[in-house]
């Protein structure tokens, strides 16, 4: 995390958010405190993903997008917010409308990774792409 993010302000964010103390900053950034670094990484990526999703929903006019969905699709989306179960996760790929939204969001993410919303956002998306693979099954 340290070399790629050096000078980005990440350490300031982690300190200001109270996620780590100044005494453990160097160890977290270098990866010596693996568990803490992983925890900070997951929180940071979750926040960045929420911001990106909010921008996607803003650009696509979310009210129109979701109001046009049938009740079954809306229920499936609401179920995704609840604690995940295999039944809920298995139901999503069978819903063509939800899959279309997911594909559109993925296209949006790819355009952001190419710099569509600026260098800072591009770096956040690319960082998420680089680090999410080893963390996800």
Describe the structure.
The protein has 137 residues and is mainly alpha-helical. The protein has one domain. The chain has nine helices and no strands. It has helices at residues 2-5, 10-16, 25-30, 34-60, 62-67, 71-81, 86-91, 96-113, 119-135. Helix 8 packs across helix 9 (119-135). Mean pLDDT is 75; it is low at 133-137.
What tags apply to this protein structure?
137 residues, single chain, mainly alpha, disordered C terminus
Brief description of this entry?
The chain is mainly α.
Count of β-strands? 0
- Strand residues, percent: under 5%
Low-confidence stretches: 133-137
Class computed from helices, strands and strand pairing: mainly alpha
Task: Figure out the total of helices.
Answer: 9
Task: Summarize model confidence as the mean pLDDT.
Answer: 75
Q: Approximately how much helix is present in the residues?
A: over 70%
Major sheet? none
Summed up, the domain count is 1
* Secondary-structure element order, N to C: HHHHHHHHH
Rg calculated over all Cα atoms = 18 Å
General shape: elongated
* First-to-last CA distance: 20 Å
Query: Which assembly state applies to the chains in this document?
Result: single chain
């Amino acid at each position: 995390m340290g070399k790629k993010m050096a000078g980005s302000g990440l350490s300031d964010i982690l300190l200001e958010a109270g996620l780590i103390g100044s005494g453990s900053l160097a160890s977290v950034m270098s990866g010596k405190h693996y568990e803490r670094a992983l925890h900070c990484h997951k929180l940071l990526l979750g926040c960045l993903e929420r911001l990106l999703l909010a921008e996607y929903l803003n650009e696509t006019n979310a009210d129109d997008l979701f109001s046009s969905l049938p009740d079954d699709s809306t229920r499936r989306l609401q179920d995704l917010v609840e604690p995940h179960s295999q039944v809920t996760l298995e139901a999503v790929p069978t819903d063509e409308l939800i899959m279309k939204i997911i594909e559109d969001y993925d296209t949006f993410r790819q355009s952001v990774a190419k710099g569509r919303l600026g260098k800072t956002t591009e770096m956040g998306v690319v960082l998420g792409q680089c680090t999410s693979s080893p963390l996800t099954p």
